[in-house]
Amino acid sequence: MMFAFGTMVSVLATAIYAVAILVLVLCIGCLALRWLPAGAEARAPLPYCIALIPLLWAPLLACAGILLALRAWLWGAFAIAGLLLWLATRIHMRMQRLSKTTQAMQSTMRDRDIRRCNQLAADHRAQQHHKPLLPIARVMTLNCRYGRADAQEIIEAVRAHHVQCVALQEVQPELLARLDTAGLRDTLPYRCAGIATNADNGGCNVILSAFPLEDCHTSSVDLDAAAVPLATVHIPMPTLSAFDSSSSNLDVSAPSSSEPNPFNPNSADSNSSGTNSSGTSHYTVRIASAHPKSPMRGCASWSTGIRALSQLACHNAIPTVVMGDLNSHSDHPSFRALLRSGFIDALASHNLVLRQQLGLSRLSGNPILTFPRWITWPRIELDHILVSQAASPSTYRLVALDAHAHAIGGTDHLAVIATLAMQQ
Known about the structure:
Elements: H1 2-32, H2 46-51, H3 57-69, H4 73-98, H5 103-106, H6 111-127, E1 133-143, H7 151-160, E2 165-171, H8 173-181, H9 184-187, E3 190-193, E4 204-209, E5 213-217, E6 230-236, E7 282-290, H10 299-308, E8 320-325, H11 333-340, E9 343-345, H12 350-357, E10 383-388, E11 397-406, E12 415-423
Parallel strand pairs: 1-2, 7-8
Antiparallel strand pairs: 1-12, 2-4, 3-4, 5-6, 6-7, 8-10, 9-10, 11-12
Helix pairs in contact: 1-3, 1-4, 3-4, 7-8, 10-11
């Protein structure tokens, strides 16, 4: 009897040992996938494996504990090394998010502009506390899951958080009708919708705005997915007195008329801040709502769709904000290629900007996890707010403050709400 019990324990230990080694090898393999060239991960099941990289700490830690408990010292050390490698990638990504200058911006500049950017970066820490943040608009993005999102909850979120521009994905005509019936046009009367195509993945993309939209393009990017609407919005030079954020220490006063326009840095006269037909000073920003296909609709279309958004990265004088469910995060090589084209992931660094302005800790830079909505863990980052600065070099830039997730019924994604601010 004792011999049979001992044999059973030995067999069980051997099985656990084998499973732990298998899981460890799979985890290390998944982690290695993040260093593939952009586009090389466009084969199933690689996008899904890479999507799980932020969660690998749990199986790696479990494998290390099990193998060390079984006195498999070599494999245990290998598991610990894998865990340290995972941790190193997280630290590296965080340091990139905390960086004040990005390779993405430098890649669009001439050599002399790169030298100027490097000089600005060298002086940034000493000057940061002298650079005020000027909130200019609050924005929100939400994947509506085939148009099933609760229209009333969307309107309540818009009104409660004083949202002035919304990017919706997977929108169906029935959802727009419900929003209009519930009174959305009273708050956000202007809209620009992507044209309906056979490539729509769950519905069309829509921009809703409290400010008039100009130069509306119903399909601004050539990609095999729902059309990407793009519009130019003139945001009145603040005051954002309606904002209820806790940023009481932020400098939200409008710049004097003698200051140069931060979105047209080559101008320095008093009119460079821009005026509309009514003579009101404003900031000009391009807004886009995007939703590349998910890998389950085709890995090749998924990868090319993400990288195709780089077509929106550079504009001579106007910064661009791309919001939406991009079905990827910073571990995906295709998404990092998009960032290198000239975009900054505003949500990944919003905590740092606010904490620095308020004189708080630098320990920040965590992404906002949005999918799936109904569980807290495991949850991954899919929804983004990307900011591309004007192509002309400038000491001004657009950043995000107060970004947070917000639950909306009827959809599987959390909405993301952020305050866009101009930083001198």
